[in-house]
Each structure stands twice: as C-alpha cells, then as structure tokens.
Amino acid sequence: FVVRTMLGLCAPARDATVRSILNHTHPVDVLKEVFGALDLIRLDFVNYQLKALRPTLLANSVQYEQSKFRSLLEGNPAALDRTKQWLRDTEGEMRQAGQSISPSGLLNAAFQRLLQT
Predict the structure, then answer these.
(1) What is the dihedral of CA 77, 79, 80, 83, to 10 degrees?
(2) Cα-flanking dihedrals φ and ψ of residue 21, to 5°?
(3) Looking at CB atoms within 10 Å, which of 34, 96, 109, 117 has the fewest?
(4) 3-class DSSP state for residue 79?
(5) Using the 8-state DSSP alphabet, how is residue 98 labeled?
(6) The pLDDT value given to residue 23
(7) Residue range 20-53, pLDDT digits in tens
(8) What is the pTM (predicted TM-score) of this model?
(9) How far is CA 116 from its chain centroid?
(10) Other CB atoms within 10 Å distance of the CB of residue 93
(11) Do 43 and 8 touch, CB atoms closer than 8 A?
(12) Cα–Cα distance measured from residue 52 to residue 81, given in angstroms and rounded to the nearest whole number
C-alpha cells in the first residue's frame, strides 16, 4: 500500500527507487528504504516549488533584501560600525601604499585583506 502510494506521488525518475523497496523483506530494511525514498521525494517537491516560484522570488528579492537590511539597521544602528572601520582601515592601507582608490578597488582590497587574515 505504501509503495503504491509513493509511486503515485513521486517523479517518474524515482519509480525505480521506489519499486526497489519491494525487493526487501526485512521490515527494518523496508522502513529504511521507505524513509530514504520519502526524503528524495521531498527534495523533488521542494525543487519543483522553487522552480515554480523562481520568477516571483527574483522579482521581489531586491525589495525584500532592502527591507530586511533597513529593519536590521533600525533595530541596531551600530550594526555597520565594524564594516565601516574595516573599509576605513583598508582605505588607509591603500593610501599608504599609494594605490588609487575607487569603490570597486576598495572593496576588492578589503576582501583580499579579509581572506589573508
């Protein structure tokens, strides 16, 4: 009964996996295989949902990120203090080395510093 129900719910690519459960006779092995197949079916379903929601997620992701960032800053105004200091320190090192400073160059140098530490 369980295997037949699973065959009706799973993607055609999982049919062989689900049918292989019928080859097991020991109840523990059967349950282990059933739960393993259910995990795969669950992943298939989640992947399908993400694929279906992808256009909506992409259309709203920037607004969502901006609102979350704004609410983070409202709740903790000092949240960027360490980031600002990190960028200031990098800018100082770049000036001492005589490097030209641009926004992208500053970020690149800051991330390189981060990776080196």
Answers:
(1) 160
(2) -60, -35
(3) 117
(4) helix
(5) T
(6) 87
(7) 888 888 999 989 989 999 898 899 899 999 999 9
(8) 0.51
(9) 25
(10) 13
(11) no
(12) 39
43-71 per-residue burial string, b: 16 or more CB within 10 A, e: under 16:
eeeeeeeeeeeeeeeeeeeeeeeeeeeee
Asked whether the beta carbons of 106 and 94 are under 8 A apart, the reply is yes
- CA–CA distance, 70 with 73 (Å, rounded to integer): 5
Please name the helix (run of DSSP H) or strand (run of DSSP E) that holds residue 67, with its range, or none.
helix 27-75
- Which residue shows structure tokens 């065959």? 7
- Tell me how far apart the alpha carbons of residues 46 and 44 are, in angstroms, rounded to a whole number: 6
Q: Quickly count: other Cβ atoms within 10 Å of residue 90's Cβ.
A: 21
Task: State CA 65 to chain mean position distance.
Answer: 14
Token readout for 99 is: 């490097």
